[in-house]
Design brief:
130 residues, mainly alpha, His-Me finger endonuclease fold, binds zinc ion
Length: 130
């Protein structure tokens, strides 16, 4: 049990470690939903049924069903495992839909029907692809 006299360098190293840990935790939180979804749902694309395993798992992405990345219920009900291609397809379909290229009735929030340009902007900002 040797007593340590020089505390300063240690404190600095500790500080750097804390910063690094915090950054890591933030990154983990940002991509955490993917891991969670992969834990809850089978490693199969929900569209084309392609199966994934350790090697090609990075091709399997997590889609937010309501396109709201802030909506991450822990039961996984807003997540869908999609392969890169189907995910891409899903988003381009959605964009077509928003732009009105599609004649099906909009079933999403009534916010889009208001005439406020700010509401429309807020609405658009929420729809960034991942
Ligand atoms: Zn697919
Ligand atoms: Zn998506």
């Amino acid at each position: 049990m040797a007593a340590k006299n020089s505390k300063a360098p240690e404190a600095q190293a500790g500080m750097q470690r804390v910063v690094a840990e915090a950054r890591k935790a933030r990154e983990a939180r940002l991509k955490g939903y993917r891991e969670q979804s992969l834990r809850i749902h089978p490693w199969i694309c929900a569209r084309c049924g392609r199966e994934f395993s350790g090697k090609n798992l990075r091709m399997l992405t997590v889609h937010h069903k309501d396109h709201n990345h802030d909506n991450n219920p822990p039961d996984g009900s807003n997540w869908e495992n999609l392969c890169l291609y189907c995910h891409d397809n899903e988003h381009s379909r959605y964009i077509d839909h928003v732009e009105g290229a599609n004649d099906t009735a909009p079933e999403e929030d009534p916010e889009a029907l208001t005439h406020s340009p700010f509401a429309a902007l807020a609405h658009l900002l929420k729809k960034k692809p991942d």
